[in-house]
Amino acid sequence: MEHRPLNRAQRVVAVVAFGFVLYFLGAWIVSLGAHLPYGSATYTSVSSSNVVGGLYPWVRFTIWMLLIATWVGVSIPLLRDRSINERSRLSS
User: Fold this and answer.
1) How high is the pLDDT of residue 5?
2) Is the distance from CB of 54 to CB of 30 less than 8 angstroms?
3) Exposed, middle or buried by CB within 10 Å (0-12, 13-18, 19+), for 33?
4) Nearest to 58 by CA among 70, 66, 49
5) CA distance 20 to 80
6) How confident is the model at residue 32 (pLDDT cuts 50, 70, 90)?
7) Residue 57: count of CB within 10 angstroms of its CB
8) Kind and range of the H or E element at 8?
9) H/E element, 53
10) Is the pLDDT assigned to residue 45 strictly greater than 60?
11) Is the pLDDT score of 89 beyond 80?
C-alpha cells in the first residue's frame, strides 16, 4: 500500500477537528468537581453563578493554556508547507 501525504485541505480539516476535540476535552476537564448546589431538579438560572466547587481559576487557566499549546504545537508542523523544505533540499 502506497503512502500518500495529506493535501492542504485535509490537513486543515485535521487541525480544525483536533481543535474541537481539545475544546471538548478541556470543557470536560475544567468542569470536573463543579455542580449545582441543590441538584439538577431545581430551578437553574441562565448565569453560571450557581455552580459551586470545581477547580481553582488559575488551574482552569493553566489547563486551557496547555491545551492551546498542544494544539499549536501539533498544528504548526502539520500545516507547514512541505514544498519549501523539498525545494531547499533539492537546491543544495
Assistant:
1) 85
2) yes
3) exposed
4) 66
5) 20
6) confident
7) 9
8) helix 8-30
9) strand 52-53
10) no
11) no
d(CA 41, CA 51): 14
Quick one: cell of 8? 492542504
> How far is the C-alpha of 51 from the C-alpha of 62, rounded, in Å?
20
* AA letter at 53: G
Residue that has been written with the C-alpha cell 501539533 in this structure = 74
Distance, in Å, from the CA atom of 38 to the CA atom of 62, rounded to the nearest integer, reads 29
Q: Is the pLDDT of residue 28 over 60?
A: yes
CA atoms of 81 and 78, how far apart (whole Å): 8
Question: Residue 15 — φ and ψ, nearest 5°?
Answer: -65, -45
**Helix ranges, 31-92 (H):** 57-79, 82-91
Residue indicated by cell numbers 478541556: 26
